[in-house]
Amino acid sequence: MTSSPSIQWYPGHIAKAEKALTEQLKRVDVVLEVRDARIPLATCHPQIDQWLGSRGKVLVLNRQDMISTEVQQVWTDWFKAQTKQPYFTDAQHGKGVAEVAKAARSAGVAMNQRRRDRGLKPRPVRAVVIGFPNVGKSALINRLLKRRVAESARRPGVTRQLRWIRLSDQLELLDAPGVLPAHLKDQSAAIKLAICDDIGTAAYDNQRVAAQFVDLVRQLQQRSPYLMPQRIFETRYSLAADKMSGESYLAALAEVQHQGDAERTARRVLTDFRKGDLGTLALELPPCHLQTS
User: Fold this and answer.
1) Kind and range of the H or E element at 128?
2) Domains present along the chain, CATH in parentheses
3) Dihedral (C-alpha) 285, 288, 290, 293: value to the nearest 10 degrees?
4) 48 falls in which pLDDT band (50, 70, 90)?
């Protein structure tokens, strides 16, 4: 496999959406920041704290069904150590969504108290749902509303327009398109976004990304064996990966199962991971849970 250029994206609509979003944030009381529970650090937008200022924030880690309960617990402990309370959800099936709505309303209590102090009537808390493409923002909104109003699909870039949605007399939500940073210097994070399909419209080499996925999983298995499932590739494909590089493994798997078609093999491996067919598999762990070599 020849070396390929770094991952690039050309999200013209995202640049436009980012400008509109920063304008709307002036009217927002609370931000629901949705991240992918498989890669909670890579799906943290580097500008979010700058955008939010003193506004309340609810941290939502979606796709909890795709990581183990042990990994969920170590992330919970890690975030709490930084005085952040994560809310894990499976938005597709509604798990954890009620707790998110309660947290959003609670975060807006101070806003309405300030209104009362000025002699104004309380109003619904205005919350915005933001995050990278395809992390589950629209699915979360649909579950919060208990009806389908935000278009949702397991592919990036579905939401393109900003719009306010009344959730109840207590809460209004702004559904925003997925926002990517204009430039992502950390290519290891970009690779994880590509693996998880959280990157929107992008240019990348499937074979390179799939090979790095295999390498990443093997590294995590070695550095945190008690948290990472073992032999996942052997179980799924009847071919062990423990003594091969990701590139070599894909080449061998292509020969065994797909008549040497490396592109088809790469797409299959990535699709199997994204659909959960490889089991519960996190691609990031807190630094304190990674053994140094």
Assistant:
1) strand 125-131
2) 9-175 (3.40.50.300), 205-287 (no CATH)
3) 150
4) confident
How many CB atoms are closer than 10 A to CB 84?
Answer: 11
- Edge-to-edge strands, sheet with 56-62: 86-89, 56-62, 30-36, 125-131, 171-175, 163-166
Secondary structure (3-state) at 177: coil
Mean pLDDT of the chain: 85
Residue 165 backbone phi and psi in degrees, to 5? -130, 125
The single-letter code of the amino acid at 56 is G
Per-residue pLDDT tens for 94-127? Answer: 999 999 999 988 888 888 888 899 999 888 888 8
Q: Which of 91, 112, 113, 95 is nearest to 169 (CA)?
A: 112
The Cα–Cα gap between 155 and 140 comes to 15
N-terminal to C-terminal alpha carbon distance within the chain: 27
Residue type, 231: R
Under DSSP, the state recorded for 95 is B
Task: Please state, in angstroms and as integers, the Cα–Cα distance from residue 245 to each residue in 19, 209, 213, 251, 262, following that order.
Answer: 42, 13, 10, 10, 15
User: Helix, strand, coil shares of the chain as percentages rounded to 5?
Assistant: 45, 15, 45
Q: Specify which residues 61 forms β-bridges with.
A: 35, 88
**In angstroms, rounded to a whole number, what is the distance separating the alpha carbons of residues 127 and 174?**
6
Which sign does the torsion angle of CA 150, 138, 130, 268 carry? negative
CA 83 from centroid of its chain's CA atoms: 21
Q: What angle do CA 33, 38, 40 make, to 5 degrees?
A: 40
For the whole model, what pTM was predicted? 0.88
